């Protein structure tokens, strides 16, 4: 088979070392194997705990909200990568791409490491209040109250549905939908919007361990995005080449964008004036950042005919719904519900 | 003169069209009520260094060159004698092939090489008397409103579906409108040709400053503003 040469000069027989997925795999080996526990040992929790304690309650709440979205999000993508993306990578439409399947092992590993980092960090630095470990979705529970209250949990549910369906059918159009919601919306818009927010909040709340961890996480996610764009581009190329079973791929990608892009408003609502923005993340800046990402990913990277006005209209409609919602009341409702499920009387502050 | 872009006359045509546009009126109802809805348009990178008088459309410069051709020998000599040193240099350099061309041909050639950015220092009063009509007006606007060599600011007063005023602004620091839309001239030019303003902002070709959330909720109004720009007749200067 392949006799190609790697950057290091190695050749292989079964593996195509010139494949872009081999390159991603190798980059993952080099860069993605950062050790979460080692990072905790090297940087330590002490400084983050001290800064955390010095923050105002509103500032703490905003960071907790943001990290809660990340924790539930990383948990969801880790689960769907383990159960569904590995099978999708082996689908016939990707032509028995051994290198893509190799890369998916790295991919899945890093997603679980992100969960590991966030879960431990939140527990060790921020306490137990919002984690609700015994009620996590894997154990039949629900998501963190703020994630449910903003509606952000809906897109993680949708991601689970679409990746499960694609893993089962292995149909190119189903796969396009699954990869779009996973890589382009959840990773491409929400996570990257989240990195932007983490960067901004670090000016007012310079948590060194958190920033270290997120540098690694965002580097990992950069490779994930590359994989998503490459995989979708391959499906689009086959559709444009006229292969019958790929027809409908481009429209499916655009449809999934329109369906799920309102999640940007759910996510961003944590940073609006309506819920205060003590760390000055600024919803306006976040919206512009995400707008640029949408255009970059769908128009430029995938060369699709996306209607920008439809996207803006969908996000505006959802934002209006968010404005009409009492988020604090919704969070309290979910917390009370969870406490009842756990057989604990609701505490005055809604926590443990 | 109405449709040279950019110009205060084009801006006024745009204002009038915007005020009469039903789609804009419906979509922008309530805009600017209780908040500052005024917009500042910032056109950067006007190619004034790169564009010469000879690069301008013939419709703008033909009359000037005709007037020079129509001068008597005495009138032409008088015009030459009063030229600025900066023009004399260009005149000397205009004899490209070393042949002693007709002086008026050299004069026209030299005049054609004057960059718009250099017009104020190269052109002299006697020549100015021959610059009339649209060209005179446009050169005066460039001199009055270009800031930092290549940027022009326009202010639009927008409130509750109407555009009451639209004007070029010589001193942008004198006003602080609620919103600002900034882009290079080339991007504005594409907008006037029909490009989508929402796409231009999302693709980062245009920078929107202000309460983005408000613009989000008035997305149809923003789109209509772009559409009306595309529908307003324009002849491009550059």
Automatic annotation (TrEMBL), chain A:
Biological source species: Natrialba asiatica (strain ATCC 700177 / DSM 12278 / JCM 9576 / FERM P-10747 / NBRC 102637 / 172P1)
Which InterPro entries does UniProt cross-reference here? Ferritin-like_SF (IPR009078), RNR-like (IPR012348), RNR_small_fam (IPR000358)
What protein am I looking at? Uncharacterized protein
User: What SUPFAM superfamilies is this protein classified in?
Assistant: Ferritin-like (SSF47240)
Q: Where is the signal peptide?
A: none
Q: In Gene Ontology terms, what is a biological process of this protein?
A: deoxyribonucleotide biosynthetic process
User: Which terms does the record give in the GO molecular function aspect?
Assistant: oxidoreductase activity
UniProtKB/TrEMBL annotation, chain B:
Which domain of life does the protein's organism represent? Archaea
InterPro entries per the UniProt record, alphabetical: SCP2_sterol-bd_dom_sf
Identification of the protein by name? Sterol carrier protein
